[in-house]
Design goal:
single chain, about 80% helix
């Protein structure tokens, strides 16, 4: 029972990190890009780094299918970091990526939902959240 609680806490911390990263990425996609871009790029990097660090706790707590799903989520965040980094470095400030790069924005949104749903389903199963409560 205690191990299930520890797992759940680890999963919740990871999902909190993920939501923070996604909020910041969404801000970069939907608001005019800043100039200079370096502070935004540093903050973006910090979000993705924190997410990767949180995967080590998921690796420790397991099970492997949840760990794999968390790594897929972090890997996608790293891919999105690459795309946003390229846009930020090529920006003069003021560009709105949801307009100029809408295809990438939509694609990342779709992929985020897919890998996120997979992670939540596996995590829920690992902590018994898929079970019906006794009456």
């Amino acid at each position: 029972m205690r191990h299930r609680e520890v797992r759940r806490e680890a999963y919740v911390r990871f999902l909190d990190q993920l939501l923070d990263a996604h909020r910041y990425m969404d801000q970069l996609w939907t608001e005019p890009l800043p100039s200079p871009a370096q502070p935004a790029l540093r903050q973006l990097t910090e979000h993705v780094d924190r997410l990767w660090k949180a995967t080590t706790i998921i690796d420790l707590e397991g099970p492997p299918d949840v760990s794999d799903a968390a790594r897929a989520v972090a890997g996608l965040a790293a891919e999105e970091w690459d795309a946003l980094k390229e846009y930020l470095e090529g920006s003069h400030g003021g560009e709105e990526l949801h307009l100029s790069a809408s295809g990438d924005w939509v694609q990342f949104g779709r992929r985020r939902a897919e890998v996120g749903d997979r992670l939540v389903a596996r995590a829920r199963n690992a902590v018994g959240g898929h079970l019906v409560a006794p009456e």
